[in-house]
Input
Amino acid sequence: MSKKQDNFGRAARACHRATGVQYNRCWEWAQTGRISRRLPVPDARSPEQRRFEALIAHTLTDPLRDGQLDGAVLGFQGALPDGDRLTLSLHPTMANVVVAALLPRFDAFYGGIRGVPGLRLERRHGAWALVDATSSAVVCLRHADPGWQPSLPGRDRGITRIWADAPTRLSRPEGDELAEWVSDGRTRPRAAARDLLFSRVLRRPLLINTAARSHGWANTYTHHTHDIVIEWCCGVPATDVADALRRSGMTAEREGVDSSPSGHREPHPERIDLGDASIVLRCLRASWCRGETGELGLAAVATEIRRRYE
Ligand SMILES: [Zn+2]
Output
């Protein structure tokens, strides 16, 4: 095998492992230069698409928290990253919760917006799609049941359903929220690097999900607009997950995106940094999940979480 073919094979295997896209298709992408060893998973091309994907990844962390099933850390079990088009395979049981968490609504008790500002749900080419009211950004959804219809949240006290009330335009509170996401005060120039990093998280669901492989359990949250924390009970060390993500091009430079940090940051083996943004990975080395044997623990953890979806 020539060195070139060897590189194609490595890029294709890395892409297949990170996304679940068929190996033959990944090989084709490698041959046509769409992926490489340096960047085996295609990036979103436009800043608007990267921002939209980043908001989706970041927004899902808090509502999902420790409610993931079968180790689907952000609710997805596969990705088809095709240039600016991204298709995500939903965990079938988590699907309604994931969509509901993303639809923007004003929460009077919280005093702000929950969900992704500007996100709307539409039918596109016979499938459900998350579309951005401010740009052409779109994320298509795939469900194991082709006839799946999202069960949309009803009217609750104190909640204004922006996605239903303003189906085609951006409401003012959403505009304010988006302006904050883009500016974020002191780190203004680094928003592009943050969007690139978080959009890469969404495009590598299978690598992200390896974190929760041991008992299917993860906990996700965020401290601010520039971090995503993923922790899991036991099993694979955080450094291994971080290394695999780095090898998949998570921190690869991209033309037009300044990915240097605004101040000095000590690198950490369990943290992936780009610009001022971070993915923080943490294995808790817990024992509560193990039961008498690993298998018993796995079943018990899943049964407990599954109740929340009934
Ligand atoms: Zn465990």
Notes: The pocket of zinc ion is lined by residues 214-215, 217, 233-235, 286, 289 (CB under 6 Å). The radius of gyration is 19 Å. The CA atoms of residues 155 and 161 lie 7 Å apart.
